[in-house]
Amino acid sequence: MKNVLAGIAIACMASTVWAAEHTVEMKNMGAEGTMVFEPAVLKVAVGDTVHFMPTDMGHNSESVAGLVPAGSAGWKGGMNQKVSVTLDKEGVYVYQCMPHAIMAMVGVVVAGEPTNLDDVKANAASLNGRFVMNKERLNGYLEQAK
After folding, report:
1. pLDDT at position 25, please?
2. How far is CA 74 from the centre of its chain?
3. Which of 107, 116, 112 is nearest to 140 (CA)?
4. 67/82 Cα distance (integer angstroms)
5. How far apart (Å, rounded) are the C-alpha atoms in residues 85 and 27?
6. Selection from 142, 141, 135 nearest residue 119 by Cα
7. How far apart are CA 143 and CA 146, in angstroms?
8. Domains observed in the chain
9. Per-residue model confidence (pLDDT) at position 4
10. How far apart are CA 95 and CA 6, in angstroms?
11. 3-class DSSP state for residue 110?
């Protein structure tokens, strides 16, 4: 009986090691200024879940097409709603708050290794071109993704 219980305990501990949960807040004002996700750059393991929490109202979180790993599902959260995403592919995921994208309300999640970082940097120019303020925010975040 002791061996069975020990086996169950080890299995439970192992399952918590394999997948973790992380929280990103959507904020009007944060450490890096206005209209931010905190943390803005998050490094996780493939299979981890990220919860995007509407700490302040008027925000959403959605992945940016072309700025995520090939074959990943991506996501699009509703306004003022929590969205939870389990990252199924290794690489860099860029996301935004659609209503505040022109203010560079963007963030980056790196799942495992940043295998697609060069592609994301090359394709980020169109998103960067839409920013009317905080124009270097995304580039700075991508530098932290290494």
Report:
1. 98
2. 10
3. 107
4. 21
5. 19
6. 142
7. 6
8. 19-144 (2.60.40.420)
9. 47
10. 42
11. strand
For tokens 């200024």, name the residue: 33
Q: What is the pLDDT of residue 1?
A: 55
Find, among 122, 125, 117, the residue nearest to 142 by Cα: 117
CB 100 within 8 A of CB 90: no
State yes or no: cis peptide before 39, omega within 30 of 0: yes
Phi (first) and psi of residue 89, to 5 degrees? -130, 145
* Cα–Cα distance for residue pair 6/14, rounded to 1 Å: 12
d(CA 112, CA 47): 9
pTM: 0.87
Residues 105 and 72: beta-carbon distance below 8 Å: no
Give me the count of residues in the chain: 146
Instruction: Name beta bridge partners: 91.
Output: 111
Write out the two tokens for 68: 């995520």
For the chain, 146 residues long, the average pLDDT of each consecutive 10-residue run is 51 61 98 96 98 97 97 95 97 98 98 98 95 97 96
What pairing do the DSSP bridges indicate for beta strands 62-63 and 91-96? Answer: antiparallel
